[in-house]
Amino acid sequence: MDLDFIRLAVPTLAKGLGLTALLTLASVAVGFNLGLALAVMRLSKNRLVSGFAKGYSTVFRGTPLLVQLFLFYYGLGQLAFVRDNPVLWWIVGDGVHCAVMALALNTAAYTSEILRGGLMSIPGGLVEAAQACGMSRLLCFRRITFPLAIRQALPAYGNELVLVVKGTSLASTITVLEITGHAKRLMSQTFAILEVFAIAGVLYLLINLVLITLVRLLEARLTRYLPR
Amino acid sequence: MELGLWQVWEGGWIAAILRGAAVTIALGVASMAFGIVIGVACGLIKWARLFPLTLAVDFYTSIVRGVPELLIIYLLFFSSVEFVAQVAAAFGYEGLAGNGYAFVIAVIAIAAISGAYSTEVVRGALAAIPGGHVEAARALGIPGGRIFRRIIAPQMLRIAVPGMNNVWQTTIKDTALVSVVGLQELMRAASVGAGSTRSPFVFYFIAAVVYLAITLVSQGGFDWIERLLRPRTRK
């Protein structure tokens, strides 16, 4: 592995780093809120509402992300009413926007399962006590249920974040040049396959390390009442 | 018709997609089988803390679980393609980048990914076996090999099944990624169909339905195995 090559490859791959981070942040921001909504819907007493959330999670967790991505990017782009609608076309017509949508919808399904586990772990007595104090349902959710659920779900959610980072690599299949997109290009241009893999791999491991550290710090902060 | 449902039927694409689905299932099963072998071996190494080997296993699992699957597949395909072409040329076969070779590399790639996740499942299952069981067996003077066969392995199997179910679901979905390097599996068949009939919506939708069917059926299978392995307590 010679130094000249590294000098060429590192800046190229680092160019993709920003886009990978952007894809991750945008899809997590959308996907988390969607997942939270789905988790609450899943626990609803209304069979129709909980059934929808269950079906959504089954479909999105039961099919590969690549299929979802291609279905949105190529499949929806084929339909006339999507092309004629400016808002829909803004989402589907652009590789980055479409990748964010697919990743967000995908991670929402997994997030909803993780948060559902957190919400179900809350003792019923706490909610009853909150109701007895006269808290509205929204206030109870904000002050009691959600903080406890997120504390419970955080370690599993950290794993999901890593999966989202890895999922962003699929955006390279719909013409988005993030780290993997640049890596594939470099591999076919220079034939230095192992070197490119190593540099790109280190970049991904760095992102994941930063994310996991942040999650750990947040977890330590949320459980600071516990003796260590 | 805009969607092109008729073309799917007319052009014989249903058969192509079903053939692709068969390749996907074969690829998934083969990769999972090798992955379990890797997982049990590496899981045991991690559990028993065999010193220099644990470092290698840690390196392997953290690389494979931290780096995108697509990148690993690119690494294995692109680095092997030249080598294989040279070997094939030496034996007088020109242009042997056919399906058989792609399938073998695909199995290696997916098994390496699946094996890394299996390792963690096996290690977790081994750690969940109460230490007292092994100590009790040792106190009774049962030899090490039999302790593993009679005490450790059966419990590990039962505890590991739910985790292995997750690994299998991920593995079968990861096989779709191999389509980008040209193996004729389900996703690739859908892509080819989508390209030549110009109706991608129908083809990718059908692919999604087939994947969903595979995952739902195997979910049922795993539920059945889990019930089968549940300890039967005396009434």
Automatic annotation (TrEMBL), chain A:
Record key words, sorted: Cell inner membrane, Cell membrane, Membrane, Transmembrane, Transmembrane helix, Transport
Q: Where are the transmembrane segments?
A: 20-41, 62-81, 87-110, 192-218
A single GO molecular function term of this UniProt record: transmembrane transporter activity
Any GO CC annotation of this UniProt entry: ATP-binding cassette (ABC) transporter complex
Q: How does it sit in the membrane?
A: Multi-pass membrane protein
Q: Does the keyword Membrane apply?
A: yes
Q: Where in the cell is it found?
A: Cell inner membrane; Cell membrane
GO biological process terms, semicolon-separated = amino acid transport
As for family, the record states: Belongs to the binding-protein-dependent transport system permease family. HisMQ subfamily.
Q: What is this protein called?
A: Octopine/nopaline transport system permease protein
Organism of origin is Shinella granuli
From TrEMBL, chain B:
> Where is this chain primarily localised?
membrane
Cross-referenced InterPro entries: AA_ABC_transptr_permease_3TM (IPR010065), ABC_transp_permease_HisMQ (IPR051613), MetI-like (IPR000515), MetI-like_sf (IPR035906)
Q: Where are the transmembrane segments?
A: 12-40, 71-93, 100-117, 201-225
Q: Which UniProt keywords apply?
A: Cell inner membrane, Cell membrane, Membrane, Transmembrane, Transmembrane helix, Transport
Entry GO terms, CC: ATP-binding cassette (ABC) transporter complex
Q: Name one Pfam family in it.
A: BPD_transp_1
| Molecular-function GO term, any one | transmembrane transporter activity
List residues of the ABC transmembrane type-1 domain. 21-218
Q: How does it sit in the membrane?
A: Multi-pass membrane protein
Where does it localize? Cell inner membrane; Cell membrane
Protein name (record): Octopine/nopaline transport system permease protein
- Could you tell me which species this protein originates from? Shinella granuli
